[in-house]
Design a protein that fits this description.
Number of helices: 2
Structural class: mainly beta
CATH architecture of one domain: Distorted Sandwich
Oligomer: single chain
Strand content: 25-35%
Radius of gyration: 20 Å
Number of strands: 11
Length: about 170
C-alpha cells in the first residue's frame, strides 16, 4: 500500500460506547458508519438513523455518505439522498436516511451495525460566471440516456434506440 498524506478530521463521539468510524480494509475509500440505535426499516419505508458521531472537516473538504453494497445487494437497502453530503461547516450528528426497496421484508438493524460509508474528499469552490451562450462540446445537450445503454431487440419495436424510454 502506498503511503498517502493523511488529512485530519476532528471527530466527536456522541456515544462513547460505539467505536469511531473506521476503514475495514487497507485502501478502502469509505469508513464505516454505525447505527446508534436499534431500528426497523419497513418494506418500502425510510428511516433516519443517527450514527453517534459529529465531525469538523477542514475547509475545502466535504464528506459523502454512501450506501453499503452488502445491505443493497442482500436486503435492498439504500440511502434516499445518496450520496448524502456533509459540508465542512456542519457540526451536528451525522444521520443517514435509509430506504428499504424490498416490497415484502422489513430489515431489523441493531445498535452498532454498519449502515453506510463515509467518504471524505477535497472539493473545489467555484465562481459562477453568467454568459449568453456556452461553448460547444462533443456531447452538447445530450442528457439522460444520450450515451446509449444496452442493445435490445425491443428498441426497434418500441421506438427507443436502446430499448428503453429516456
Amino acid at each position: 500500500m502506498t503511503d498517502h498524506p493523511s488529512t485530519e478530521v476532528l471527530l466527536l463521539r456522541l456515544d462513547p460506547d460505539l467505536p469511531s468510524p473506521a476503514y475495514a480494509h487497507p485502501g478502502d475509500a469509505g469508513a464505516d458508519l454505525l447505527t446508534r440505535v436499534d431500528v426497523v426499516v419497513p418494506p418500502q419505508g425510510r428511516v433516519t438513523v443517527p450514527t453517534g458521531v459529529a465531525i469538523a472537516l477542514p475547509d475545502g473538504y466535504a464528506a459523502f455518505v454512501h450506501p453499503r453494497s452488502g445491505l443493497a445487494a442482500k436486503h435492498g437497502i439504500t440511502i434516499v439522498n445518496a450520496p448524502g453530503t456533509v459540508d465542512a461547516g456542519y457540526r451536528g450528528e451525522i444521520s443517514v436516511t435509509l430506504l428499504n426497496t424490498d416490497v415484502e421484508h422489513a430489515l431489523e438493524l441493531r445498535r452498532g451495525d454498519r449502515i453506510a460509508q463515509l467518504v471524505v474528499q477535497r472539493v473545489e469552490r467555484v465562481r459562477f460566471v453568467e454568459v449568453a451562450t456556452l461553448p460547444g462540446s462533443h456531447r452538447g445537450e445530450g442528457g439522460f440516456g444520450s450515451s446509449g445503454g444496452w442493445a435490445s431487440a425491443a428498441g426497434a419495436a418500441d421506438g427507443w434506440s436502446d430499448g428503453r424510454p429516456g
